[in-house]
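Bump. Still looking for Carbohydrate ABC transporter permease structure tokens.
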Amino acid sequence: MTSGGTAAAAQASGKGTRKPGKSVTGTRPWIAGAFLLPALLLLGALVVYPIGYSVWRSLFDAPGSGFVGLGNYAELFSDDRIRTALKNNIIWVVVAPTVATALGLIFAVLTERVRWGTAFKLVVFMPMAISMLAAGIIFRLVYEQDPERGVANAVWVGVHDTFAEPAPYPGANPRPNSDLKASGGGAFTTKEAARTGTAVSLPLVAVQPDDLKGAQRAVAAKPRPGQITGTAWLDFTRGGGGTPNRIDKQEKALAGLEIQAVRDGKVVASATTEADGTYALPARAEGAKLRLPASNFAEAYNGVDWLGPALVTPAIIGSYVWMWAGFAMVLIAAGLASVPRELLEAARVDGANEWQVFRRVTVPLLAPVLVVVLVTLMINVLKIFDLVYIIAPGASQDEANVLALQLYQSSFGTDVNQGIGSAIAVFLLLLVSPVLIINIRRLRKERQR
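Sorry for the wait, here they are.
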């Protein structure tokens, strides 16, 4: 071999040999460590130390002076409030991510081919720009019990009143010392049986002014042979001076009031008062007592108690889905854009309808994206705090309690016990860890493909 060839070989072998003390990338380890040191210090101060201290603090009592071992963890499963919080967290983890992901998938698929799909996606995604605090305030007003203020109950009451006729005079009562007496269930019945050819007066009080708008002046009914007649009116004269149980000049008629003739517990006849308050029952009502059914006086339908103990958790989950369905939709839409159209068209050519294409082709191809969205939302709901703290009123906050909120209340609330609070924090970390591990493994598998 020539000297030139030897030199070339030596040069080539030199290129393939790593200098001592250098890593694969050609950088000395201490240089890489120097660059990583600030980040490691910050990570240790903000993550590692708080986790370690929380584990240590969870082994001590409320003042932090007495060692209790795993006693705080045992109390997590014996305290009623914490058990309620744990149950609600399970509901959150199962329901909220599933519903948000399902809605995101539906929105992404349905808006793919429509012209205004981008505008719709923008509107659905807009709640993501709102903080949890602002969203909580918004939905606290949406779920307000008063239909005049709460949007949810305004819609619900409107739908209800479309199919159910409201009571004409909610809250009205008989005039004291009149012939009408309460007969149970909100109804009022005369003490004496009525006779044909007589007029039975039905004076009422406590009628709301709004229910009398456009009402005519009451007219005294005249007796008629073979009929039971009478008048129902508001026995109240503004400014005083009226005579009880008698129709005075300025007193108003109660139109649309249902009158029933009841004998032996059965309704034998019924009538409705006219515009001047008068009514007439046929001869078969002879000897029956007159009853004003409760449907005349039932309170106006006030909607659903959204923030009551029974519905407060589903209501708050609804506000969360409103915020995060847009997030799921955007990620799924991005995954849908990368789905090969040839596969979808091939399925349609083979005779599959749109539902079969969606169920057997689109969803399986989107499975990796759906898993990412689902796992991300599961981690997010395990830490949910803001919405529950703001939306749930004090009367039902215990029923809406979640672990993150209980952690705050135990650590900084009125009954401070930082040992319990630290135990809840460690327990939350243990709950989140399996989801994080699954997510990390999934990411590693995707990189190896």
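The first strand starts at residue 173 and ends at 174.

Edit: fixed formatting.
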